[in-house]
């Protein structure tokens, strides 16, 4: 069984699914409408009240998760924790509350996971489709066919922020609605042309907000009874008649949805106008289903991160032979160093493959350029934290170790850095060596054993070893070499 937890700007939500062949059947769902996005103050800090509400929800979710025999759990956070200035301070307490690591994903990765969730429910490998997802703090547009994604983009506009900006006191007027729609259109107008260049057969709305709008239209017999622009105009008119959020009385609309429905409707109408779309289909699928699908793929060794790394290698025409050589040697040395867990094993291999990517910018300081590129690139499947870790390994593969800012205190990370540096040293010295031809240990000090004849056969090896001894000494770690 697998579990996905989505820490959204509107709600915290949880899905637990059971694998049924290639499909996933949902056996448990939970939702807490805590409005985390509304808990940001004017300086973009989460308030104490918002933090406490989030921690209470996460603790409750932990109880639910503990009741199931789970094979995998992923907790992902979206826009509010992407932009909150105190997110880093909040995360340790949040992770303790739910009992699992929390991954803050980029808007583009959020879009890809949303599409994966939609595709896993729809199937239809030949269908080309546009997916629209309006969250509390961001909106994602994705075009793809089957499970393949052609284009994804995240826009920093959502239901919570838009409702507060244009309906701050709960009053609903035609003027406010028109301004909200116009503002929404301005957010999308520059990005939409790239989508219009692509053809799609169907349009789907995957978010809870879109489903709530569709439900209100159907259950209250508004417009043509479908999720069309005409029906949205009718819903807009009805909301204006109510005049205030406190007076909204629509069949099927929960009170917690009513508070932000105006912002969500304005965003949806704005993006549909820009996309020239008149109708779409609401769908009970999205981010959480995508996370479950991604967990399933990782369990079956179809990890999207592998494809991302290979794509990066190809995009920048890196020497695949050198890259694979370093990655293989580094992995072998890391195994010799006997880390306490395999937490860095795959990241070390990927950083070995990508260690020279910065050379497309400049040979001088290429490790710094590579680190920046990896941390800031759009790498499908990777979380922000995972990219930062890859970046630090690439940054630390040569030169002084001070730039790692104390990360060597993590013994397993220090071993990964050492393995990568030794692999690069062997490659630069042109030593045709397998990892098991080197002997290395790292406890209170580093002990490296090399063949006696290597120093004679490889002129620069002594230089590189001497520099390594100096750099590790600066980090407070003795480096001993034996022949």
From TrEMBL:
SUPFAM superfamilies: Actin-like ATPase domain (SSF53067), HD-domain/PDEase-like (SSF109604). Residues 18-297 form the Ppx/GppA phosphatase N-terminal domain. InterPro entries: ATPase_NBD, GppA/Ppx_hydrolase, Ppx_GppA_C, Ppx_GppA_N, PyroPPase_GppA_Ppx. Keywords: Hydrolase. The keyword Mitochondrion does not apply. CDD domains: ASKHA_NBD_EcPPX-GppA-like (cd24053). GO terms for molecular function: pyrophosphatase activity. Residues 305-468 form the Ppx/GppA phosphatase C-terminal domain. PANTHER family: EXOPOLYPHOSPHATASE, RETROGRADE REGULATION PROTEIN 2. This is Ppx/GppA family phosphatase. It comes from Noviherbaspirillum sedimenti.
């Amino acid at each position: 069984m697998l579990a996905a937890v989505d820490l959204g700007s509107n709600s915290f939500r949880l899905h637990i699914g059971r694998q049924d062949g290639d499909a996933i059947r949902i056996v448990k769902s939970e939702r807490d409408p805590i409005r985390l996005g509304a808990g940001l103050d004017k300086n973009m800090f989460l308030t104490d009240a918002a933090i406490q509400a989030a921690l209470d929800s996460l603790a409750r979710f932990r109880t639910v998760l503990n009741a199931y025999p789970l094979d995998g759990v992923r907790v992902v956070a979206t826009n509010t924790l992407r932009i909150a200035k105190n997110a880093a301070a909040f995360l340790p307490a949040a992770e303790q509350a739910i009992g699992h690591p929390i991954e803050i994903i980029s808007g583009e990765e959020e879009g890809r996971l949303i599409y994966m969730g939609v595709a896993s429910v729809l199937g239809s490998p030949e269908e080309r489709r546009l997916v629209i997802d309006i969250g509390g703090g961001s909106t994602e547009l994705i075009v793809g066919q089957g499970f393949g994604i052609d284009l994804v983009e995240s826009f920093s506009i959502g239901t919570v922020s838009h409702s507060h900006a244009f309906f701050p006191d709960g009053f609903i007027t035609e003027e406010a609605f028109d301004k909200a729609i116009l503002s929404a259109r301005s957010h999308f107008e520059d990005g939409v042309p790239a989508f219009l260049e692509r053809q799609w057969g169907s349009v789907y709305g995957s978010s809870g907000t879109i489903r709530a709008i569709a439900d209100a239209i159907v259950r209250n017999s508004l417009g043509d009874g479908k999720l069309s622009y005409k029906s949205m105009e009718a819903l807009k008119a009805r909301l204006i008649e109510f005049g205030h959020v406190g007076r909204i009385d629509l069949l099927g609309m929960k009170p917690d949805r009513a508070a932000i429905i105006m912002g969500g409707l304005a965003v949806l109408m704005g993006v549909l106008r820009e996309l020239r779309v008149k109708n779409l289909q609401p769908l009970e699928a999205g981010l959480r289903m995508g996370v479950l699908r991604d967990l399933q793929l990782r369990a079956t060794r179809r990890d999207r991160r592998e494809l991302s790394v290979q794509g990066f290698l190809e995009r920048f025409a890196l020497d695949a032979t050198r890259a694979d050589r370093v990655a293989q040697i580094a992995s072998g040395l890391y195994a010799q160093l006997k880390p306490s867990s395999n937490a860095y094993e795959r990241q070390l291999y990927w950083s070995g493959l990508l260690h020279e990517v910065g050379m497309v910018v400049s040979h001088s300081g290429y490790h710094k350029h590579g680190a920046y590129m990896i941390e800031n690139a759009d790498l499908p499947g990777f979380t922000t934290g995972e990219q930062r870790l890859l970046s630090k390994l690439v940054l630390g593969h040569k030169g002084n170790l001070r730039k790692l800012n104390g990360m060597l205190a993590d013994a397993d990370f220090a071993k990964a850095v050492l393995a990568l540096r030794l692999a690069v040293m062997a490659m630069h010295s042109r030593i045709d060596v397998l990892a098991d031809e080197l002997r290395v240990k790292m406890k209170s000090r580093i002990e490296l054993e090399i063949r006696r004849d290597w120093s004679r056969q490889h002129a620069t090896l002594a230089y590189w070893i001497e520099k390594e001894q100096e750099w590790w000494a600066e980090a407070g770690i003795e480096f001993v070499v034996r022949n």
